[in-house]
Write a structure and sequence with these properties.
The chain is 6% helix and 55% strand. By secondary structure, the chain is mostly beta strands. The radius of gyration is 18 Å and the shape is elongated.
């Protein structure tokens, strides 16, 4: 079974981010609704591909007022751009389960090439019979590159929100029902 299409499980996947606030501490946020597919080439993992969709409306930072601001045109402009996408263009294996995943990240309708440091886990068969794989990806982006440039100057210099955004993807993806027995 060289190539299989895994479905990202939105109940067990998320996209987290952190950004510097007032040049002091990191503020963290989470997108709780992540969907998509992973085309896994089990014989040649470098030929695999990833297609991820993040629902912007699922953002939470733990502060409702801040979450509402993130949805406005100052940040994600959710009314006009309800999703963030990542579509891989290449996978370069750097170890048995590690890879550089290059692709196009689209935020607010602006696409930029990014490289994600990825790692795979599994497959694991659940007690309920389904077989899944886990994937973690990390990258850093400059939010200004995507038109997310709202900021406020601070009284003593500097800006309210940092430019660099650290992103962490945690994905659990399921084998098709008929393939679970073969993969586990």
């Amino acid at each position: 079974m060289p190539r299989v299409l895994l479905t990202i499980d939105p109940d067990h996947s998320s996209a987290a981010f952190s950004v510097r606030h007032m040049m002091l501490a990191n503020v963290r946020g989470l997108f709780g609704r992540v969907t998509g597919t992973i085309s896994l080439d089990e014989e040649d993992p470098g030929r695999s591909s990833v297609d991820v969709h993040i629902d912007v409306g699922s953002v939470t930072t733990g502060i409702r007022k801040r979450d509402e601001h993130l949805l406005t045109s100052d940040f994600f402009d959710a009314a006009n751009h309800p999703g963030i996408t990542f579509r891989s263009t290449s996978v370069e294996m750097t170890g048995e389960r590690r890879a550089w995943v290059r692709g196009n990240l689209t935020i607010r309708g602006t696409s930029r090439s990014v490289t994600i440091q990825g790692e795979a886990f599994g497959p694991v068969k659940s007690p309920f019979g389904a077989t899944s794989m886990g994937f973690t990806g990390r990258t850093v982006i400059d939010r200004y590159d995507f038109g997310v440039s709202w900021n406020e100057p601070l009284e003593r210099g500097g800006l309210m929100v940092g430019k660099d955004v650290f992103i962490l993807l945690d994905l659990e993806a399921d084998y098709p029902a008929g393939e679970s027995e073969k993969a586990g």
